[in-house]
From TrEMBL:
The lineage of its organism: Eukaryota, Fungi, Dikarya, Basidiomycota, Ustilaginomycotina. It comes from Malassezia vespertilionis. Its EC number is 2.7.1.-. Residues 33-226 form the Hexokinase N-terminal domain. InterPro entries: ATPase_NBD, Hexokinase, Hexokinase_BS, Hexokinase_C, Hexokinase_N. One of its GO terms (biological process) is glucose metabolic process. It is an enzyme of class 2 (transferase). Keywords: ATP-binding, Glycolysis, Kinase, Nucleotide-binding, Transferase. It holds the Pfam family Hexokinase_1. The keyword 4Fe-4S does not apply. This is Phosphotransferase. One of its GO terms (cellular component) is cytosol.
Length: 485
């Protein structure tokens, strides 16, 4: 049924699916198997978290670690009094966004923005063409909101939010390590993407000055703290996953050689979606054959293993593969044409949200979803099964997501003093029950200290955070505090 038969042949050869006479029996059998497969116990969460803490420490100590722990060269927390007008450009996994941010001080700001949808083609074209597109969008925005760009005398400060693993040696430099989130643009990995954007802006004569390049998670950390000083960790749970927090420079041995006082604090972009990658056995007890299939058929096998198990880009695909398994076993959609669900990634994670949140007794939303998008008729017993599968996938995602937060909280002692975690991304904000499941897992891992860790919807990191960091960087430069080797 699948274009590549590996997933179905795997299930058949493992003799997992002996066919009972009644469909109800085999669905019940499959539900039990999936519950065993996707349930992550409290003990397993604790074990993963301890490995996570060690991975964070390894990344701070040495370069080229699985969890790279990139210094972001954002020093200390904002005062909350930062003011001024700043542009921000956010190159995300789905959209390109250009913002004009008015920082008003006292933790307040206003944002005016334009979004530009990124096509599949743009995610794979030459890097120069991608950044040229970014420059064109910025120029269009400037012309719309400032009048003709040729009439602007003084360049406008621009903060660039670039949400991909990069190595920085200063705030306006960022060398791309590798693409994630389905991007694979040639001639960019290993290059300074801030400089590539500068070249494109210059080619299109855009009157801006690029002051900083940051990860969206770093921006979320700073924006959340700008609004509320008890926010100490930031996480993204969307197309991908990541976290940032503020670390003591004395705890970052790999920064030795930089002219940075040890009593300084610096934001760390963890890039912890890579946790458990490159043959590490740490996630093996909770990985399923569906996770293995997704990884082996991805454009970056053996990379971003943690992200592939919990992020919004992959949850719908896990669900689809389970359905295809049952189609191949002659259990689902008998006599119906299933070609529409055979296409990889056709099942958006938003569909799982709809399935889980269907309020009707007959699960009419689920029925309509399969009928409208896939031309498939379903029975109530099948729809109940689909809802349970969606719950299992969503629950595992939230529980594993708690491991990364717990690792940072335990490392920094936030389980004792408490803190807020600013969380952004569609998985956190839109997936039903995600936050509650996350909080339950924090208590499973940390104990009573987990109740002191509170997640909440983050402020606009890629917009407001970029602007606050631009303001902080401007003030720091004016004071003569520039980090260098």
């Amino acid at each position: 049924m699948l274009e590549d038969k590996n997933i179905s042949s795997y299930s058949r050869s493992s003799n997992c699916f002996e066919k009972p006479h009644a469909q109800e029996d085999i669905l019940e059998q499959k539900r039990t198997e999936l519950e065993d497969m996707f349930t992550v116990s409290a003990d397993m969460l604790k074990t993963i978290t301890q490995d996570f803490i060690q991975s964070l420490k390894d990344g701070l100590e040495k370069k080229d670690q699985t969890v790279p722990m990139f210094p972001a060269f954002v020093f200390g927390w904002p005062t909350g009094k930062e003011t001024g007008h700043y542009l921000s450009l956010d190159l995300g996994g789905t959209n390109l966004r250009v913002c004009l941010v008015d920082l008003k001080g006292d933790g307040k700001f206003d944002i005016t923005q334009s979004k530009f949808r990124l096509t599949d083609e743009q995610k794979h074209q030459d890097g120069k063409d991608l950044f040229d597109f970014c420059a064109k969008c910025v120029k269009d925005f400037v012309n719309k909101h400032f009048g003709s760009s040729s009439s602007i005398k003084d360049p406008i400060s621009l903060g660039f939010t670039f949400s991909y693993p990069m190595v920085q040696e200063k705030i306006d430099h960022g060398k791309l390590v590798r693409w994630t989130k389905g991007f694979d643009n040639p001639n960019t990995e290993g290059k300074d993407c801030a400089e590539m954007l500068r070249a494109s802006l210059k080619r299109f004569d855009v009157p801006v000055h690029l002051t900083s390049i940051i990860n969206d998670t770093t921006g979320t950390l700073i924006a959340s703290n700008y609004v509320s000083s008890d926010s100490k960790i930031a996480c993204i749970f969307g197309t991908g996953c990541n976290a940032a927090y503020m670390e003591h420079v004395s705890n970052i041995p790999k920064l030795k050689g930089f002219d940075i006082p040890e009593d300084t604090d610096m934001a760390i972009n963890c890039e912890y979606g890579a946790f458990g990658s490159y043959g590490s056995p740490v996630l093996e007890p909770v990985r399923t054959k569906y996770d293995e299939y997704i990884d082996s058929h991805s454009n970056k096998p053996s990379e971003q293993m943690y992200e592939k198990m919990i992020s919004g880009m992959y949850l719908g695909e896990i669900f689809r593969l389970i359905l295809c398994d049952l189609v191949d076993d002659g259990v689902l959609f008998l006599g119906q044409n299933t070609y529409k669900i055979e296409k990889p990634f056709v099942f958006d994670t938003a569909f799982l949200s709809l399935i889980e949140s269907d309020p009707t007794d007959e699960l009419l939303t689920v029925m309509g979803l399969f009928s409208y998008f896939f031309n498939l008729d379903t029975e109530i017993k099948e729809r109940l099964f689909f809802r349970r599968v969606a719950q299992l996938i969503g629950l595992r995602s939230a529980r594993l997501s708690a491991c990364g937060i717990s690792a940072i909280a335990l490392k920094m002692g936030y389980d004792k003093e408490g803190c807020h975690v600013g969380c952004d991304g569609s998985l956190y904000s839109k997936y039903p029950g995600f936050a509650d499941r996350l909080h339950e897992a924090l208590v499973d891992i940390i104990g009573e200290g987990g109740r002191k860790i509170h997640s909440r919807q983050a402020e606009d990191g890629s917009g407001a955070g970029s602007a606050v960091i631009a303001a902080m960087t401007k003030a720091r430069k004016e004071a003569g505090h520039i980090a260098h080797r």
